[in-house]
Amino acid sequence: MFKRARIAAKSAAQRSTIARRVLAALLAASLLPAAASSVEARDPLLAYGARIVGDDARTRIVIDFDREPRFSVHYIANPERIVVDLPATAFGFPAKDLAARGLFKDIRYGKMDEESARIVLTTTGPVKLALAKVQADETGNGHRLVLDAEMIDKKAFAELVKTQSWSDRTEAAQTTSAIPAPQKAAPGDFVIAVDAGHGGIDTGAIGVDTKTEEKQLTLAFAKALTDRLNKEPGIKAFLTREDDEFLSLSQRVLIARQNHAGLFISLHADTLKQKDIRGATVYTISDKASDKLAADLAERENLSDQIAGKETVAEPPEVADILLDLTRRETQAFSISLAESVLNSFKDQVGTINNPHRHAGFRVLQAPDVPSILLEIGFLSNAEDEKLLLDEAWRGKIAGLLTDAVKRYRAAVMANGG
Fold first, then answer.
1. Which of 236, 284, 344, 393 has the fewest CB within 10 Å, making it most exposed?
2. Where is the MurNAc-LAA domain (predicted)?
3. Alpha carbon distance 371, 335 (integer Å)
4. Does residue 373 contact residue 284 with C-beta atoms inside 8 Å?
C-alpha cells in the first residue's frame, strides 16, 4: 500500500538541494521573520519533502529532512489528535503534499517558538502510531520521518493519553515568567498590551486573493500600532509576540497581566462565508454572544489552542465563574468604553460592519483585571478589505486613529481617578 511513498522518496531527495537554496535565498532577502545570523545560530532543520498515502484503516506519512530529526509523540483527546514535536524546523514543501486524507481529517505544522516546531494530526477517531521512526535516506541526502497510523478502540486510546508523559502542562507559567516588562516603562505610565492574533503553527485565516496568512498581517499591524502608541508621552505599549511564534490564549492573557497592562488590544482579520461583508468590528467579552456572527467567530478563535495541539486543562467550575464575574463587574464597563472610543475614532474614517460593537465569550479577553477588546480590522474573505490590510499606509492610518481612541480613553479614566 505504501509503494507510492517509496517511489516518491527519490524525487523528494532530489528537491533537497533546491529547497535548501530557496531557504537560503529567502533568508538573505529577509522574507523570513528571523534574521539570517539568528537562523544560522539555531541551525533549524529543513523539511523539504512530504507525502501521505493510505486509507481509513491505515495511513502513512513520510517527511524528508536535510538531517536526522529528534522527535517526540503525544496523544490528545477531545478531539483525538496526535502531536509530533520537533526542534526548530523550516517547512519547505508545498502544503498540498501533506493534505489530509485517510485517518487524518486535518494536518497542521509550523513553528511553536524559537527552539521548536510541531505537527498536529487531527484524526477521524481513536488512532495510534504503530510505527514512528527516523531512517536514513537511501541516497544519503538526509533522513526521513516515517509515521504509520492505524485505528484502535476508544479504551486503548484513552490509555495512551493517560499513561503518556507530557512535559508542557506548565508551559504557560514557565514561558510568561520570562517575558520582560516593557522597555523604559516609568511609574505612572499607561501600559498597553498589543496582541497580534495567531502565530506559528496557527496561521489564522487566509486571504481570498493573495493567500496571505492572517498571522503575518496581524503582526505587521501590531508592530505599527505599538510604534505609534510609544510616540505618545506617558504611554508604553508592548507586543505579546514579536515574531512568528505560537502563544496559547492563556499565555496572551498572562503576559498582559504580568506586565501590569492597563489595556489589552487583540488584532485579527478573519474570514466569513459571506464574502461581501467587509469593514472593522470591535468585540468585547460577554458570557452570551450578541449574535450568531459573534458566536461563530468566538468559537473559531477559541480553537487556537486546539489547532496547535495544546492539551486542554479544564478549570474548576467555581474558578471559571469567578473569572467571568470579575470580568463582568470590574472591567466590562471599561472594555465597552474603549470599544466606543475606537468606533468614534473610526467614524467617517474607516468602514465598519453593521452593528460594529459586538460581544461574545472570547477566551483571549478573559483577563479579570485588564480592560480588553478584540479588533477585527477587516475580513480576508473580502477582496477589497484584503487590499487595504496589505496597504502599509492604510495600516498606519488605522494605528493613528486607534492611538487617538486610546488617548481619549486614558483621559476619561484619569479624570475619574483611574
1. 393
2. 253-407
3. 5
4. yes
pLDDT tens, residue by residue, 11-62 = 444 444 444 444 444 433 333 344 433 443 458 999 999 999 999 999 999 9
CA atoms within 13 A on the CB side of 252: 30
402 C-beta neighbours (distance < 10 Å), count: 26
Residue 159: how many other CB atoms lie within 10 Å: 14
Mean pLDDT of the chain, nearest integer: 85
CA 122 to chain centre: 17
C-alpha cell, 24: 537560503
Give Cα 125 distance to the centre of its chain.
25
Pairing of the two strands 263-268 and 235-239: unpaired
pLDDT digits (tens, 9 = 90+) for 285-315: 998 999 999 999 999 999 898 888 876 555 5
- Provide DSSP, 187-256: TT-EEEEEEE--BTTB---B-TTT--BHHHHHHHHHHHHHHHHTTSTTEEEEES-SSS----HHHHHHHH
Q: Which amino acid is at 313?
A: V
Q: What is the separation of C-alpha 211 from the centre of its chain, rounded to a whole number of angstroms?
A: 16
Residues 6+ apart with CB under 8 A from 349: 397, 401
Check if the beta carbon of residue 225 is closer than 8 Å to that of residue 194: yes
Task: Give, in order, the Cα–Cα distances in Å from 388 to each of 39, 308, 354, 381, 397.
Answer: 32, 29, 19, 12, 11
User: Cell numbers at residue 319, please?
Assistant: 474558578
pTM: 0.81
Query: In this model, does residue 64 exceed pLDDT 70?
Result: yes
